[in-house]
Specification:
By secondary structure, this protein is α/β, with parallel strands linked by helices. It folds into two domains: 2-53 and 363-405, Urease, subunit C, domain 1 (Roll), CATH 2.30.40.10; 54-355, Alpha-Beta Barrel (TIM Barrel). Helix content is 33%, strand content 23%. The protein has a six-stranded mixed beta sheet with strand order 3-2-1-4-13-14. A four-stranded parallel beta sheet has the order 5-6-7-8. Helix 3 runs parallel beside helix 4 and helix 7 (245-252) packs parallel to helix 8 (268-276). Bound molecules: zinc ion. Zinc ion (ZN) binds next to loops. The site of zinc ion (ZN) has 5 residues, from loops. Pfam families: Amidohydro_1 (PF01979). Its EC number is 3.5.4.4. This is Adenosine deaminase.
């Protein structure tokens, strides 16, 4: 059955926005786009602007039950990590149940904020039951910690299973996340890159996130050294000094798709290196988490000037007030008013889909793509659609299920 939707403004993300366009949908896929709305049976969405379903490129849904972020604003980064560890320990034996419940709640919160794709860092493998939500696609990126040699091998075995697991829900695809330079060994990252190549998996790694991380890499000292010493995980061979985030960028560059998460302290030579590898690499900026830790100004403008794909993530509710991706984009717009709004939209759609290896289904509105869209009420004769969208709140719509299930209350 073909369904038709006549929309006021269509932002396809593969060309200029189209006024008065009709989207044809069959089952759960878009069949075609027509530039004039001549169909008498089309659902009237003339007071709406429609774009591809928003993509949250980085979050940890296990923290979605938190009301407020952990710790205090501007705190030392390693102090915050200790808060995270304490929070998890607080659940004792019921941690797995808590995580599954928080992930389910997190997916619901994402959908309520117009988000249709979530790249979520999974700390337990194969949390299948938690991902049962057909309107939100989950990229389940298994977190890989590698400094504890005893547990590293077990985790690699889990990663191999994760990469090929026959998920019973169609809305799940796998990925891997070697966690960060202070928690994943060089060997572990190499193995992740090899699995990425073998199975065409996206990889995400927290990198150049804090000054403490840079100190550990450069000199093998600082708060991270103290933290790892206390955990019995510090080894000179892992942190000999003289290292930079650039070493990790080189390592990640040969993955199928690799995302540098945060990149708050990327320097000029590192940005030049990312530019060399921009066919496969992206940077994920988490704006309100960045603000929570009061990091130095983010290098997003330099990254964009070099044509590097920048995508946006909420990170988790352990460092951000909620899972509202559009609020993250609004934050970028306010912090960097020189970045045109047109350049912000691909960060949460087309470019994020590519970074996660999902460009064949998400990120653009085109024939063959999934019929999941984000919609903004703009009313009739809107003088400035983009500004109205920027100030608005997106709704997530599955155009494959028909009007009765669409929430058109304010249309
Ligand atoms: Zn993160």
């Amino acid at each position: 059955m073909i369904r038709r939707y006549r929309v006021g403004w269509l932002y396809t993300m593969c060309g200029a926005p189209i006024p008065d366009a009709t989207i044809m949908v069959e089952d759960d896929r878009i069949v075609s786009i027509e530039e004039t709305g001549i169909w008498h049976d089309a659902v009237d969405l003339s007071q709406w602007a429609v774009m591809p379903a928003l993509i949250n490129a980085h979050t940890h849904l296990e923290f979605s039950n938190l009301i407020d972020p952990l710790g205090t604003q501007g705190m030392n980064f390693t102090q915050w990590i200790m808060e995270v560890i304490r929070y998890r320990q607080g659940f004792g034996e019921s941690l797995a149940v808590e995580k599954a419940q928080a992930i389910r709640s997190g997916l619901k919160q994402c959908a309520e904020h117009g988000v249709g794709v979530v790249a979520e860092i999974a700390t337990f493998p194969l949390m299948e039951v938690a991902y049962e939500r057909p309107d939100v696609h989950v990229v389940s990126m298994l977190e890989m910690l590698g400094l504890d040699r005893g547990r590293a091998q077990e985790r690699l075995d889990q990663a191999r299973e994760h990469a090929v697991y026959p998920w019973s829900h169609e809305n799940v695809t796998p990925g891997l996340s070697p966690h960060a330079p202070y928690s994943a060994s060089k060997g572990m990252i190499d193995q992740c890159v090899a699995l990425s190549q073998q199975h065409q998996l996206p990889i995400a790694m927290h990198l150049a996130e804090s000054l403490e991380e840079l100190e550990l890499l450069e000199r093998g000292t600082g708060p991270f050294r103290v933290m790892l010493d206390n955990m019995g995980l510090f080894q000179e061979t892992d942190f000999p000094g003289g290292k930079r985030p650039a070493d990790y960028i080189e390592q990640l560059a040969s993955a199928y798709r690799a995302m540098v998460v945060h990149g708050n302290y990327l320097t000029k030579p590192e940005i030049a290196l990312l530019k060399q590898h921009k066919e496969t690499m992206s940077v994920c900026y988490c704006p309100r988490t960045h603000a929570y830790f009061r990091h130095d100004r983010h290098p997003i403008e330099s990254l964009l000037a070099d044509g590097i794909r920048v995508v946006l993530g909420t990170d988790s509710r352990a460092s951000s007030p909620d899972l509202d991706l559009w609020a993250e984009l609004q934050h970028v717009s306010e912090t960097f008013p020189n970045i045109p709004a047109e350049q912000l939209l691909p960060m949460v759609t087309r470019d994020a889909a590519f970074a996660l290896g999902l460009e064949g289904s998400f990120g653009t509105i085109d024939a063959g793509q999934k019929a999941m869209v984000s919609a903004f009420a703009i009313g009739s004769d809107c003088p400035d659609v983009l500004t109205a969208m920027l100030g608005g709140q997106p709704r997530l719509w599955n155009l494959g299920v028909g009007l009765t299930q669409l929430d058109l209350a304010t249309a």
